[in-house]
Input
Amino acid sequence: MAETLRIGVAVKHGVDVTLTRADRATGRVDLAGAPRKTSDFDKNAVEEAVRLREKHGGTVTAITVGGPAAREALREALAIGADEAVLVTAESWSTWDTRAVARLLAGAYRTLGGFDLFLVGEGSTDHFGGLVGPRMAGELGIAEVASVRKVTIEGRAVLAEKDLEKEVEVVRAKFPVVLTVGQEINTPRLPTFMANLKASKKEAKVLAPPDVGLAPDSLAPVVVVEKVAVPEIPRKQVALAGASAEEIAKGLREALRAEGLVP
Amino acid sequence: MSPERIVAVSEEPALLPDLVRVGRSVGADPSDRVVAVLLPGVPGDAADRARAAGAHEVHRLVAPASTDPHVLTSALEEVVRTLAPTLILVGSTKRGRELAGRLAGRLDLPAASGVTALRTEGGALLLDREALSGNAVATERIERRPAVLALLPGTTAPSPSVAPPGPAEDRTVAPVPPLTETVEVRAKAGGQLEIEKADRIVTIGRGLRKKEDLPLIEALARALGAEVGCTRPLAADAGWLSDDHWIGLTGHRVHPKLYVAVGVSGAVQHQVGMRSAQVVVAVNKDPNAPIFAQADYRIVGDLYQIVPALTKVFST
Ligand SMILES: Cc1cc2nc3c(=O)[nH]c(=O)nc-3n(C[C@H](O)[C@H](O)[C@H](O)COP(=O)(O)OP(=O)(O)OC[C@H]3O[C@@H](n4cnc5c(N)ncnc54)[C@H](O)[C@@H]3O)c2cc1C
Output
């Protein structure tokens, strides 16, 4: 009996950290109006999901939790090769914290009938907290393997290489399992023109919190952001120039002597 | 305001003393308690070190050692039920974040990771955390307790003057079947270098044309008595250097007195790793490279000319 593989993947439309600017006077960053993009690691997650489907068959469902603009992340996931797209949204989406997002993903997981494998980026480009995947697995009471750099399917289980600070742990986990993946797992394909065109025509299924079993007021943030600011690090900004490389090098030696860093 | 009861978890034993110190600084009232919890299999001296850092109590969980997140969080769930903490602290390492997230999901608790500072205000927790890929600091408020916080390695507080005496207490935890099975553990290549502790670092980026040119950088590092660091592409993509040299958001955060960035553009994800360097020197042929905005001393030029000259001058 061959069961079709059901793969879910979470994608986030997050703040583009390369384009955010702090207010010069206050150092504060206004995230409400900041430009957004699909989180980098989430594209790796979609790519890995699609590769597994290409090898083993089955379906890939991309799920995003967010506002209307998050459809862009779904479009990108579809262009990479996801089969279905689901947007979990409500008016209050911008207030949702990590807990709300993980609960909504867990709710969507249940509502959609469960998955064998559920892939999540190890951290989002903007928040980079690394909590959503394990938190969702905890909510669901299913296995998870975080920081995965390589995954293979063996029957109804995965063999996953978990990249830790000092070691690599090879872990076997039976389905269902949540995997969090980083950039090193693959290089996401650049979708073809046709794939992009097809993706932009596909409708996403839209779910509200009650559709996934959650009352909107149960999603009020428990971790409330008071402010986001860029710390001011004063740097001397001294340009060292000279007629030759050696002259410049001597200039640096003088400077570092004055700093007490070289004899 | 009810007393704080803070549990510091030894997921990474080396970080436990710092977790205890931060716990003591948050729970500074005489009625507050800081409890160090040793996960099964943690070496015995961790108890003494937790005590020396100021833990009021040390609890050693007795069960077969495991790295399965389900087994570990189940043990911690029991700790939460029996010790009724107001706050649970772990290290913001890869495993620490995984445990924090999973535990928070099991018990529906507020959680945050990458925490760099922590204080209370009334009964609320106020924390600073890395945000925007480490480019910014978010200040966040948590009213609901208990909360689970993963503290970035290096986050600490002064040791309290008195270490309360007392033996470690053994606590048997009910075994649960694991959900994952460890097949193999491989040490990573390199792995010996502790670049986060280095006093001086010469970091090389993609300005280096080929691996064979690395000795150029190593010679400069030697002349300065520095360790060699690198950007992500050199470790993760090219594999020219092992992961222990990698500096940045997904690598190591370093705190040297001297940081020399050579052929490094200065992407935000790199900057977060070197932000707390005292003196930064940048060598780059592009005068508009973002690294220059982070530099005390800027050298615009070709590294293949500048670096040998620097090596010569600093060797004599
Ligand atoms: C989620 C995420 C996490 C990341 N984590 C990290 C991380 O932890 N650490 C990290 O470093 N990056 C990280 N990155 C990658 C980061 O965005 C940059 O891509 C990376 O830092 C660039 O490395 P680089 O400066 O070596 O290369 P480049 O950006 O290519 O810069 C090379 C520089 O060398 C200069 N140069 C070239 N030739 C010469 C020469 N002959 N002489 C002098 N200068 C020369 C160029 O002008 C250029 O400025 C991450 C990215 C993402 C999306």
